Amino acid sequence: MGTLGFWRLAQSDPERIAVVDPDGTEHRAGDLLARANRLVHGLRELGLRRGDGICGLAPNGADGLVLHLAALQAGWYHTPINWHLTGPEIGHIVADCEARAFFVDERYAEEGLRGVAASGLDRRRVFSFGRIEGVRPVSELTEGRPETAPSDRTAGAIMHYTSGTTGRPRGVRRPLTGLDPDDTAERLTFLPALFGITPGGENVHLVTSPSYHAAVTQFGGATLHMGHKIVYMDKWDAEEMLRLCERHRVTSSHMVPTHFNRLLALPEEVRNRYDLSSLRWMIHAAAPCPVPVKWAMLDWWGDCVYEYYAATEGGGTIATPEDWKRHPGTVGAAWPISELLIVDDDLKPVPTGTPGTVYMKTAGVGFEYKGDQAKTEANRLKDHFTVGDVGYLDDEGFLFLCDRKADMIISGGVNIYPAEIENELTLHPKVADVAVFGIPDEDWGEQIKAVVEPAPGVTASPELAAEILASLDGRLSRSKWPRSVDFVEEMPREPNGKLLKRRLRDPYWAGRERAI
Fold first, then answer.
1. 190: left (phi over 0), alpha (psi -120 to 50) or beta
2. Are the beta carbons of 210 and 60 closer than 8 angstroms?
3. pTM for this one?
4. 195-229 in b/e burial notation, b at 16+ Cβ within 10 A?
5. Closest CA to 162 of 253, 97, 88, 74
6. Local structure of residue 124 (DSSP, 8 states)
7. 340: closest CA among 395, 385, 289?
8. What's phi and psi for 192, nearest 5 deg?
9. Is 4 within 8 Å of 32 (Cβ atoms)?
10. In this predicted model, what pLDDT tens digit does every residue of 2-44 receive, in sequence order?
11. What is the distance between the alpha carbons of residues 75 and 44, in angstroms, rounded to a whole number?
């Protein structure tokens, strides 16, 4: 121990450019360290203690990263919030994680303040990046505080929220270790190391996706602790991504298959315009990647395209370019610290090549769904856990996904939970019954479809579909809105009331090799 970790590296080389914001603003390592230290001192004066939580509603960039760095050396839980959420959705997370301070960027002021009002958090514990009327700027908390390291430093943790089939997001909470933050930061570098990523200031990591996602946080934070420069994108644009790769000599990034689709859709002359020779570890996950798309990316970028399968809760697989070429379609073999277990409906292991529920095991720190012990236990099989995916192992231990037990939709690498959408749609007075599920989308992987049984006396029409969707405005983030609405005379349900969603869903997936 002792050679890696942001805090150590920033002290040894404070002038190094550690972060580049989406607008091109560069941040030196020493300045980021000073900001994080001042924030710890300010929040401690506000009364925060080890084990408390803070929330951030901030875009990709240095501001959100400073919250991350402060929490991880003060023994706090940091919850980055999805900035596409509506006020009530934000308020639920702020209240549920028991945040003692909330930070909101001026870009998200309207929904962020609605969330604060819904959460019941004291407005004196709300701070703004930028100008928000009636909200204290972060500078009020940090000005005059020392830049020196706080005393009694202890490792904090990130608590991401992941939705469940009931539609309410749940915090994935790990116990605090009490370890030294610097040593803990060095341990976090094991994840990029699995892919062969090496430390050193010559490496550059490009953040292409929202930093509130668990994987984006983990890869961005881990590579920062390895001394890499972090370059942030504000929003996805295929050619801009190529431009940034050339300009900053990017060596690694974390992507989803939708990004690949966008890149491959660029005209050939645009794709050939940029020097991508620096790329070494372009990692993708979060959704199945069609085999032809993966081959096309390997043909274009060469053997730098890595894949993995994992969950916010932990555990996972990895497929190197060579692995994938030998096993096209695989999401990889188990990490050295993880195990895979495929079981049938009776929770008994199945033979090689036989599909079953995928369970994973991690040798690291355990987790719980905050405030939901029943959910925590329901997803476990001894010391393994599942997120409800179905797959099989080949004779070399490589995992192939083939279906999903839960009804979760993955659109553009983002997890979307139908129950939450159904709960909102059923509130419309002209809706008697509703089912929401994913249907094929060549670009996004899946898109959201709603099937509605109109209330008695109501006639199905395009106007009714538009009216139903418009009712979601302000109650559900637009990323969760169905792309289309179909109507049925009567929803297929069993006598016990169970919805036969597959009967509705299957026709849309007819002829597909896999329903995921």
1. alpha
2. yes
3. 0.82
4. bebebeeebbbbbbbbbbbbbbbbbbbbbbbbbbb
5. 97
6. G
7. 385
8. -60, -30
9. no
10. 678 999 999 999 999 999 999 999 999 999 999 999 999 999 9
11. 11
Token pair for 352: 């090689």
Between the alpha carbon of residue 226 and those of residues 19, 74, 107, 190, the distances in Å are 13, 20, 31, 10
Whole-number Å distance between alpha carbons of 322 and 300: 15
User: CA–CA separation, 317 vs 197, rounded Å?
Assistant: 16
- CA–CA dist 91, 77 (Å, integer): 17
Residue type, 506: D
* Segments of 132-280 assigned E as strands: 136-137, 157-158, 161-163, 169-173, 204-207, 229-232, 252-255
Specify the residue for token string 């908390």.
Answer: 141
CATH superfamily of 409-509: ANL, C-terminal domain (3.30.300.30)
Q: 300 exposed, middle or buried (CB, 10 Å; 0-12, 13-18, 19+)?
A: middle
Domain range summary for the chain, segments of one domain joined by +: 18-175, 409-509
First to last CA, the chain: 42
- The letter for the amino acid at 371 is G
CA distance 15 to 28: 5
pLDDT, one tens digit per residue, over 297-307 is 999 999 999 99
Q: Write the CATH number of the domain with boundaries 18-175.
A: 3.40.50.12780
